[in-house]
Design brief:
There is one protein chain. This protein has 652 residues and is of the alpha+beta class. Among the domains are: 107 residues, Chitinase A, domain 3; 107 residues, Roll (Chitinase A, domain 3), CATH 3.10.50.40; 87 residues, no CATH class; 96 residues, Chitinase A, domain 3 (Roll). The chain contains 26 helices and 21 strands. The strands form 6 sheets. Strands 15, 16, 17, 18 and 19 form a 5-stranded antiparallel beta sheet that branches. A 4-stranded antiparallel beta sheet has the order 4-3-6-5. Strand 9 and strand 10 form a beta hairpin. The N and C termini lie close together (6 Å). 21% of the residues are buried. The N terminus is likely disordered.
């Protein structure tokens, strides 16, 4: 283990020292695998890595199998397949994202998001709509309107009256909620809105702030500690908020009857399946998606309050009402807000893909421009586009001849980018879309094109700058090739080669047998009273079918007994293990709190399975057979050499 620590430490020093400490551990054909590459993969695939000879030998055999398959995929040209190249390019773009942001700003935004996640804000807003691509005239008009509304509030008018009054908020929901958005936390509102909400003191009005929806005024009503997240189930009896009084009375009676069953010990999930009116959750025992701080799932405040008031797992509430009806909610589990370290990766992912990610990327582009001698020369050369781009571009039909002079728009890293380059970009990316101010359109697309070229240039250098990125891309490259060749040579072949599958089954049919089984009707009950009722009814008549027996016992409640009719393996079915059964009706017995009555219709001795009965297992075994046969061929085709001395030095 000491040798491993020294090896890993050596990777941090100069390339000369790196080469001295990183010998070749394995070669396949002409490809050399260095000790550090092998070690990286070994550590990644072993949670508890061991470095004794047996463990290393076992893993190197798995590694050789993997490399043989990848080598064969390359020999057959899989890496030249356009679809796989496109797939890998998609992975590359995803993997490159963390390298194309301002890391310092990124860290600051992650820390900011964590601090905000500790609290939930309750706020109301007033919205004056204006699109992101609005003309300067329309933007100014919207700003003047929101400013006038703010002036009224500053002059003493109530926020709610201004929001709901004439020429007030343009948010359609204001008629229902007076602008009240309820509680929210980080990432649940667009970033500019969130920032103003978190920086405005309780009771004060912040803004105007512009988002992609328009201009907002934000009144903060409350700020509380984050509640955490909860997994819960519920039983709902639906009734409209303005329902008929008799309907409301009946719904309340029904929820109270269900509550009484819970109090008598009946199982929550089963009652939800039987009685809940929420079709989306009743089939899952009433279980709902996780909700609370930081989740996308929002519940009405009455429901959240009842759920978070529960202090223990499996505890359930008393019946309560929301606008949707009456509910009983059960807490399944609760998770408090995690530490910064626990939440870091999740926060980082959200920061990178949202509006915050755009800010870190914009900051990164500014740094790249400084480092690579960027010069914007578009003051004169962009004018042609401002004059020549017209409304046809929003129909996807804009065309113009080449310019008389192909002027430079900007230079970067020793390269020049010309008007014709931008013209081609506009032509290739035009599509039918909602018309906007053409000047805004040209300026926005010029910036987008410029940023894209700068990021593409930086992305092309990642393998040379970051060894860990190069290793990750190699891992994805090999993984994609491995999947495709295994699919063709093993997985799909085992399913599609029906003749080969039949021949394999014929040679190995003795491996696929049914164990000793019984063909039986199994009645199970949660109490001995109902089990005895089944036994007495079966004993008194032979005229009823199994279903008729079950229906008779369950006539007053579907919860009395459960009937299953099937073939059971006595040695592997938990409730049958150790039971001495006879043909016909057997005496009641208890297993794990349930009471069973079993009617044996037939004892079935062990017998061979047909191919149809054993198909899943046969296909899996045939796949293994195909893989081993194929690997033997590859061992003869590709040359692998392992440097044992280097391999075993990992354990020193």
């Amino acid at each position: 283990m000491k040798g491993i620590k020294l090896l890993v430490a050596s990777l941090l020093f100069s390339s000369v020292l790196y080469a001295q400490k990183d010998p070749v551990i394995l070669t396949i054909n002409n490809e050399e695998i260095h000790q550090s590459d092998f070690l990286s993969v070994y550590l990644k695939n072993n949670n508890d890595p061991k470095f004794d000879k047996e463990s290393l030998d076992n893993y190197v055999e798995l590694y050789k199998r993997f490399k043989l398959k990848v080598a064969e995929a390359e020999a057959l040209g899989y890496d030249k397949n356009p679809e796989l190249i496109k797939e890998l390019d998609g992975y590359r773009k995803t993997l490159a994202r963390p390298y194309l942001v301002d890391s310092a700003k990124n860290e600051a935004l992650i820390q900011e998001a964590y601090e905000r996640s500790k609290y939930e804000i309750r706020a109301s807003h007033i919205l004056v709509m204006v699109t992101e691509d609005a003309s300067p005239k329309d933007t100014l008009k919207a700003f003047n309107k929101i400013s006038a509304l703010k002036k009224r509030i500053d002059g003493g008018a109530s926020f709610e009256d201004v929001a709901t009054g004439k020429d007030g908020s343009e948010d359609p929901s204001v008629k229902q909620n007076n602008g009240d958005l309820g509680y929210f936390t980080a990432f649940q509102m667009v970033y500019p809105f969130e920032s103003v909400a978190y920086s405005t003191p309780v009771g004060q009005v912040g803004g105007p702030v512009r988002t992609k929806y328009g201009y907002h005024l934000i009144k903060v009503a409350d700020k509380r500690a984050a509640r955490g997240t909860i997994s819960a189930a519920h039983i709902m009896v639906a009734v409209a908020a303005d329902g008929d009084p008799l309907d409301v009375e009946n719904a309340e009676k029904k929820i109270n009857e269900i509550y009484e069953k819970l109090e008598k010990g009946e199982e929550f999930g089963q009652l939800a399946r039987l009685y809940s009116d929420d079709n989306g959750s009743k089939g899952k025992g009433g279980r709902l998606p996780q909700f609370g701080t930081g989740t996308s799932q929002r519940m009405v405040s009455e429901f959240e309050d009842a759920a978070f008031a529960l202090t223990k797992d499996n505890e359930y509430s008393k019946p309560f009402r929301t606008d949707y009806g009456f509910h009983i909610v059960q807490r399944i589990d609760y998770t408090s807000l995690g530490s910064y370290e626990e939440m870091y990766k999740g926060l980082q992912s959200k920061v990178n893909r949202g509006e915050r990610g755009q800010k870190t990327q914009e900051s990164f582009i500014v740094k790249l421009k400084k480092e690579n001698n960027f010069k914007d020369l578009s003051k004169k050369t962009l004018k042609w586009f401002l004059n020549e781009v017209d409304s046809t571009i929003f129909q996807g039909t804009w065309e113009r001849e080449n310019l008389a002079k192909n002027g430079v728009l900007f230079s970067y890293a020793g390269k020049k980018f010309y008007q014709n380059d931008f013209k081609q970009y506009l032509a290739e990316n035009q599509r039918r879309t909602k018309p906007m101010n053409t000047e805004n359109y040209v300026n926005e697309n010029y910036k987008k094109w410029q940023d894209q070229l700068i990021l593409e240039d930086e992305e092309s250098k990642l393998e040379g700058k970051y060894p860990e990125f190069k290793a990750l891309m190699k891992e994805y490259h090999d993984g994609v090739l491995l999947y495709e060749i295994m699919k063709d040579k093993v997985w799909d072949k085992a399913i599609q080669d029906t003749t080969g599958l039949q021949n394999f089954f014929a040679k190995n049919s003795g491996d696929y047998n049914w164990p000793d089984r019984i063909d039986a009707d199994v009645y199970s009950a949660n109490d001995q009273v109902n089990a005895q009722a089944v036994f007495d009814l079966l004993s008194s008549t032979n005229d009823l079918s199994a279903k008729q027996v079950a229906d008779s016992i369950n006539k007053d409640s579907q919860l009395n007994i459960r009937l299953e009719s099937s073939k059971y393996a006595s040695e592997t079915t938990s409730f049958l293990v150790g039971q001495s059964l006879k043909n016909g009706i057997n005496r009641i017995f208890e297993h794990e709190g349930k009471f069973y009555v079993i009617v044996v219709k037939e004892f079935l001795e062990s017998q061979p399975k047909t191919l149809a009965e054993a198909r899943g297992a046969v296909i899996q075994d045939y796949q293994n057979h195909l893989e081993e046969t194929w690997l033997n061929e590859l061992r003869d085709k590709h040359i692998i050499t392992v440097q044992s001395e280097v391999l075993y030095s990992l354990g020193k």
